[in-house]
Amino acid sequence: MPDTRETMSGAVSERALVDQLRSSLQGEVIDRGHPGYDAARAVWNGLIDRRPAVIAKCAGTADVVEAVRAAREHRPVVSVRGGGHQVAGSAVCDDGLVIDLSPMKGVHVDPAARTARAQAGTTWGEFDRETQLYGLAAPGGEISATGIAGLTLGGGFGFLMRTFGLSCDNVRSLTVVTADGTVRTAGPEEEPELYWAARGGGRGIGVVTSFEFGLHPLGPEVTAVLALHPYERAEELLRAWRDAAAVAPETITPELLLWSVPPDPAIPPDMHRANCVMVGAVYGGPPGAGAAEALAPQRELGPPLMDLSGTVPYVALQSANTWRFPDGERYFMKSHFMDELGDEAIGTLLNCYSRRPTPESLIVVRTLGGAVARVGPDETAFAHRSARFNVSIDAGWQDPATDGTAIGWARSSWDAMKPFSSGGTYVNFAGLGEDAGELRGAVFGSHEERLARTRAAYDPEGLFRSAARRP
């Protein structure tokens, strides 16, 4: 049953909400009859097909305040959109209000202080473009179209996390519009509990309108390994990679993918879409002898099908995989944190991969540790500091008729890997809305109760309750 405190009473209230927003916002207000409605409600994951009552495209923080005030008065279900790239599609809701921050893309870099203030509609590609003008970077995601907001609020995995930490670990402060319509700055000294919750606690704390990140000297060029190996050696490669990852320096974050050879014009056509094992890592420092030495164990796991390693612009590296995850295709991802990657787990992983439904589907093994583990377990809401690996089962497909098969494969593979899990799940790879109840404790671990208290303190009437329930 819907929560009546979060549901508008009908068409009259919906019209009143739209009228109030149009009279108070500088940005565009899009209702069901607007010609741009279908485009505005679409998100990256084509599996998500939700129909909000109204979308408030906020031009700035003042618009966000007005949208929150309207929501307090009319009590719709509320969702918040940043980049709109999250797998579960939590950016949009049915029959409610979407507070859409995507027009808010300002980025200001202070090279002397090594900080950047970025609005919450910014994507990592847009952020990197600005910071790389000064040879600076904050650890972001692996797909440049991903928004900075959703990734950071959930923790923030990326190619640099063992060197510089998660995205959320690099947040100096945030601007948040809380449920009472107040604009708050959250940082170590001011609103420290809100600051704690925003770094890994996911949704439901309010509307974050901007982030201040600490930056690190990196780029404009970096050295990286990307080696494609024959799938026939997958078990041997996984074991060798696991052993190399265990002793890898913190200057690299080893990653292994079971996937298909991409249909890239630079790759011979007869190799396209063949199963392969991809090994990747980025050196979190300047190119040179140190980079080559740190990356050598990742590059020397055996004769590859193709070695694409080298020195490349950081912005090119960050955007290299974006084309393989195009807008509008269908995605389902679910993950486990793991303390060990034993031989039995490797065998199970390969068995799962052997049943994958489409060439777009893959399994990713990421390494943690390093700077991620050096942050105290209770310093942020991110609850999985001690894990050594994250294994993500990622289904991708195009045909809606394949929905059941693709999602079924990912769910059954996740179930098969569960005996090897340390009990945790990464909130940004946590399935769809229907997975939320099952995974709540696994996502936030021992921090769940503290998060609930913090949300209640800043949102006693539950304006963002529905957002907090979503993965």
From TrEMBL:
SUPFAM superfamilies: FAD-binding/transporter-associated domain-like. It holds the Pfam family BBE. Residues 47-218 form the FAD-binding PCMH-type domain. This is FAD-linked oxidoreductase. Belongs to the oxygen-dependent FAD-linked oxidoreductase family. Its cofactor is FAD. It comes from Streptomyces fungicidicus. GO terms for molecular function: FAD binding; oxidoreductase activity. Keywords: FAD, Flavoprotein, Oxidoreductase, Plasmid. PANTHER family: BINDING OXIDOREDUCTASE, PUTATIVE (AFU_ORTHOLOGUE AFUA_1G17690)-RELATED, FAD-BINDING PCMH-TYPE DOMAIN-CONTAINING PROTEIN.
